[in-house]
Amino acid sequence: MPSADLLCVFGANGAGKTRLLRSIEQCLPEGDAMRVGTETVVDDLVRSFGHFRGVAEWRESHCTVDTLLLDNLWVLARRPSAAEVICHMIRARKDAGKLTAVASDLPLTTWMEKNPEIARLLTEGTSIQLT
Fold first, then answer.
1. What single string gives the DSSP state of each residue in 13-55?
2. What pTM value is reported for the model?
3. Residue 116 φ then ψ, to 5°
4. pLDDT range class, residue 128, cuts 50, 70, 90
């Protein structure tokens, strides 16, 4: 059964994935949601390695927010080590009952070829296909 703590939005470029994430963010009380691009999350993680408590602060900022809206998941297709960390973060959020919504231009079949770990994670969530 798909998880209620993970929403996966699939669709081609321009299908409305980012607009849907923005709409979700606007429906929630201010401060309860963070909408961010995957590339920003990965860049923040890389920068955090150079600071004392950096990774802990990164984890706290991305894992404790009630709803994380993660756009442009395709970035992880070319960054496998970052994909592993992001998958771990999303699973930790699921275990804590926190909602994560991810948007991907790449369909699940492509993820199966590029990164089986992300593909497994995405199959655990509730999927929406935008056309």
1. TTSSHHHHHHHHHHHSPTTSEEEEEHHHHHHHHHHHTTSTTHH
2. 0.91
3. -60, -30
4. very high
